[in-house]
Amino acid sequence: MAADQQMNVPSENDGGVDISPEKDGGVLKKILKDGEGDECPCVGSEVFVHYTGTLLNGEKFDSSRDRDDLFSFKLGEGSVIKGWDVGVATMKKGEVCVLTCAPDYAYGSAGSPPKIPANATLRFEVELFYWKDEDITGDGGVIKKVLLKGEGFKMPKDEACVTTHIRGMYKDTAFEERDVEFVLGEGEEKGICLGIEKALYKMKKREKVHLRIQANYGFGEKGSEEYNIPGNAEISYEVYLTAFENPKETYEMELEEKMEVSQKVKDKGTSFFKSGNYERALTQYNKMIKLLDVYKDDEKLVANPLKCIGHLNAAMCELKMKQYQAAKKNCDKALEIEDQNVKGFFRRGQANFGIGEFELARKDFKTALEIDPKNKAAHDQLKAVINKIKEQDAKERKKYGNMFERFAREDQRRTAAEKKSKPTETDVFKQAAEEARKAEEEMDTDEQKKQDDMENGVEGVTHA
Prior knowledge:
- The chain has helices spanning 64-67, 82-88, 194-200, 255-274, 278-291, 297-320, 324-337, 342-354, 358-371, 376-421, 425-455; strands at 17-18, 27-33, 46-55, 60-63, 71-74, 96-101, 122-132, 134-135, 142-148, 161-170, 173-183, 208-213, 235-245.
- By secondary structure, it is of the alpha+beta class.
- Strands 1, 2, 3, 4, 5, 6 and 7 form a seven-stranded antiparallel sheet that branches. A six-stranded antiparallel sheet has the order 8-9-12-13-10-11, covered by helices on one side.
- Helix 9 packs antiparallel against helix 10.
- The chain is flat.
């Protein structure tokens, strides 16, 4: 290593300002070119930079500019050295600066052989080109910007009880601000839009964020009459997650508790279903099924009847949403538990009808009637599917009948064309007679010519 390579913490005398969180001189920043505006990237933002890294003696060990390729990473997630997470978070768009990072904010005592020795202080010239804030939904529907970093690592899960403070904005005007406590997955009951719920799943305790929410995750096509917001409007919210309490994991519950919780979840699902919110009802029924996924035989005897109901109710939601294949699978699961379940055969018949498997649907409805001969709904559905099969058969007969008629007409045209192109037997005889007549005429002509020559003294004349 060169003699002038320094291993200690950098000094502000080197021309930088200490921006390290602990003010321990771990990261010094010197601005070479001012950036634009006042905004900086935040935790979770994907930043795009060019950089050149050198040791304190000026020896270059890496450069994105040499590769002519912008380097990107997610800020604040530990995917780069600590000095970068600290330094780039203070930069503005277009800014160029030098970050001098002490070993504890770089590669520490291990270094990064062979180019970076142990306990090396590093300098980086960094240019921030642009950044993208975190896309919560993956389709640009909810964009999250962290205003205040949260605590710990845990985040809310389904059914977590969350306490939040929210402030809604439309075109820089606040339309609501309140504290609200609710169960994740049931925010609609408290006037919480889907975009906020989506974001809360990715927030930590005491985290504050700014959310930019598109209409499909906000107030939709109708807008909000209460808040005087038009349809298809983009809105924004500041959300502060004060606290949350996650529900127990399934493995933490005894069977009795699982049964009790499952019944409550079923009741929630039924409430959602009756209000026409089939998607949220389905979420509850799927959770119920998961809760009752037990392995001991004695527990299965207790849990399976309620689990069967969960599968059948999930299938009912999927039928409403025309998710026929998924509904069929849930019916199959229910029939694995109770092989003579009328609703299982009936709803599977509906699913098969929906996907056009009419013969399978007829079989399911007939089986349902064999189990329950007085089931009027099954009678009606069987009649409907038989009519559908007849209708389909008629279409098939017409289709193939027309096809055969077309083939017959083509054969007739082909035969007629062949007859026209080939001479008949009568035509052959006529042609032979004509050829004989012409030959006879030629012979007569030759005899007449000879006779004329004799008369003129030509025949037998030899010239000397």
